[in-house]
Amino acid sequence: MLFLLFRYKGWEPSKYYWMPAGEQKIIRAFMKKEIEERNEEIDSINNSLNML
């Protein structure tokens, strides 16, 4: 997950590391949701391409 925060959000790993545990938990939940949404979008695109 740290890689995704760095890659897509421009976060330095230390930004996450130094957060309180509660904030880290929220960030993990947000990233999980974003990953799910991205995967759904990819699946939708793949399904559209398979129909061609």
Task: Explain what you see.
Helices cover 83% and strands 0% of the residues. By secondary structure, it is mainly α. The protein starts with a helix and ends with a helix. The model has no long low-confidence stretch (mean pLDDT 94).
Q: Give helix % range.
A: over 70%
The chain-level mean pLDDT equals 94
Query: What is the strand content?
Result: under 5%
Cα separation of the termini: 34 Å
Number of strands: 0
**Structural class by helix and strand composition:** mainly alpha
What general outline do the C-alpha atoms trace?
elongated
Biggest sheet features: none
Number of helices, where a helix is a run of at least 4 consecutive DSSP H or I residues = 3
- The helix/strand series, from N terminus to C terminus, equals HHH
Gyration radius, in Å: 15 Å
- Give the low-pLDDT segments: none
Write the layout of secondary structure elements.
Elements (H helix, E strand, L loop, with lengths): L1 H8 L3 H5 L3 H30 L2
